[in-house]
Design brief:
19 helices, 6-stranded mixed β-sheet
């Protein structure tokens, strides 16, 4: 009889032992399938969440590190400036799609007023209003001046346009000649233009002013009194372009609401012009502010933003940048947006990995012992085959065929049931952990670890229901093949050890 036919006959003759092995393998393989299913769900969800984020990064100063230095040393640290050469080294990273390198700061104006962002189609949510936004303006606090946010433009194609933050609705961006000459031109928002009766070709005045606040009180009127002006220069800016905000802001999120307000009131000017204003302001401030006397860089930082091709590229760019940046700088990203769900999934992933290792080890040990006992009962049968001249390879193949036939059925069933059961269990574990975090952490619904400059690019915070909806429990082809490989691999290892032991026995001794 063919040795494979003998294998099938043996299974049919001893259905009890085959069924016992099937049940045992089914239980153990369910643990393996469940662990792999949870790990796959964690990886799928993290990948999907990361893919939903804008692939932007920027160079950030470690403000906490700077504060600690001041506390420890009583003075500001000497901070290396971010240079064009350094930015060029970072842009050598192959996955950098676009970048910009510009100054961010503030300028003042007595002519224009700040404006509230445009409300959504269904209006501002409860507790949010145009009046509430304008409470952040200086004019609302009793002084006849406004503080305007300025951002330098270093390239004709504006980074904020490329990144999808804004889009030009009329006019144009700053051109190459204006960039080279540091011309007094500006791009403003549609809302800002309407509020201040501006259009393309209009001009408005701004001033670069420093107040000597030595011994001055903390009220707004005292701090912005014309009597304590130490330095001021006035300029006339021509509006060459008007932009619309290209993304929707979640006004229920305070940080995003603040970014919406800042965006519609931002003035884009040539980068060299912004730099000259900021440096002039810094030098004048050093003359009256003892905290800035030893500083080498103005509080308004030079900004470098990068747009990467993929979310995976963002992670690699962080590692690449860490090796190039000077002390007290780091690469900022949006990865902290999903900190709550990521911490929960990392815990689940660690548990699943532990279960996988334990399940594989237990499967090898238990199945090895069971198969050894089964083969001991068949020693005379094996000895008879050997005595009749059957090759050991064929006997081993027969026994492997018997065991693997049962194992394939058990693994197939476990693939379905293990992944199904683990998905429900892991989703419940995730929900319980998120609810616990929410109950214990008052900042659960607030983003931490993201620089303010990147806030404008991030999506709104996810609710627990949205987090659970994003939990992707689908088994990928890679995960299925991994489970089949691990499942069959553990059975093969468990089978080989007792087979080697049995086959080393002398046929005559077996028959005695």
């Amino acid at each position: 009889m063919n040795y494979m036919k003998r294998a099938m006959t043996s299974i049919k003759r001893k259905p009890g032992k085959s069924a016992a092995l099937l049940v045992l393998l089914f239980v153990l393989e369910n643990l393996i399938a469940g662990a792999i299913s949870i790990q796959t769900a964690v990886e799928n969800t993290q990948t999907n969440l990361m893919a939903s984020l804008p692939t932007v990064a920027n160079i950030r100063m470690d403000l906490m590190g700077r504060e600690n230095y001041v506390v420890d040393n009583g003075r500001m640290p000497v901070i290396q400036p971010i240079t064009t050469d350094l930015v060029n080294q970072l842009t050598a990273f192959p996955e950098v799609e676009s970048y910009d390198f510009f100054w961010d700061g503030y300028i003042y104006s007595r002519q224009v007023q700040l404006v509230s962002p445009t409300p959504p189609a269904n209006g501002f949510p409860e507790g949010v209003s145009a009046e509430r936004f304008l409470e952040w303006s200086l004019r609302s606090q009793g002084v006849d001046i406004e503080q305007l946010s300025i951002r330098g433009v270093a390239q004709e194609v504006m980074f904020d346009v490329q990144a999808g933050l804004i889009s030009l609705s009329s006019g144009r961006a700053v051109n190459a000649q204006e960039l080279a000459n540091n011309s007094l031109v500006a791009v403003v928002s549609h809302e800002f233009a309407i509020q201040n009766n501006l259009q393309v070709g209009s001009t408005f005045s701004v001033e670069n002013t420093v107040w000597d606040r030595t011994g001055v009180g903390w009220t707004t009127e005292e701090r912005y009194d014309d009597e304590i002006i130490h330095f001021t220069e006035e300029y006339q800016l021509e509006v060459v372009g008007i932009f619309e905000t290209a993304r929707d802001f979640d006004f229920t999120d305070n940080r995003l609401a603040a970014m919406a307000f800042q965006t519609v009131n931002r003035i884009y000017v040539p980068n060299g012009l912004a730099e000259s204003w900021i440096m002039a302001n810094f030098e004048a401030a050093q003359e009256v502010d003892t905290w800035l006397a030893d500083a080498t860089e103005p509080p308004a930082n030079m900004q470098a933003f990068f747009s990467l091709t993929t979310s995976q590229a963002v992670e690699a760019f962080v590692e690449f940048g860490d090796g190039l940046l000077p002390e007290l700088y780091y690469i900022g990203t949006l990865t902290g947006v999903f900190g709550n769900i990521n911490s929960s999934m990392e815990s689940m992933g660690w548990i699943a990995q532990l279960v996988l290792y334990v399940a594989v080890g237990a499967t090898i040990i238990i199945v090895t012992l069971i198969i050894t006992l089964f083969l001991r009962d068949r020693q005379k049968e094996i000895g008879l085959y050997l005595a009749l001249g059957e090759k050991k390879v064929k006997i081993i193949t027969q026994l492997l065929g018997e065991i693997l036939s049962v194992a394939v059925v058990a693994i197939g069933l476990a693939l379905v049931s293990g992944s199904f059961l683990s998905q429900g269990l892991s989703r419940q574990m995730l929900e319980n952990d998120l609810l616990t975090q929410q109950a214990e952490d008052p900042s659960f619904n607030h983003v931490t670890g993201i620089s303010f400059d990147l806030e404008v690019f991030r999506p709104a915070m996810m609710s627990i229901e949205e987090m659970l909806a994003a939990y992707d429990t689908s088994m990928t082809p890679v995960a299925i093949f991994l489970f089949l490989g691990v499942g069959l691999g553990t059975v093969l290892i468990s089978t080989v050890v007792p087979l080697v032991y049995i086959m080393r026995l002398n046929p005559q001794k077996i028959m005695l």
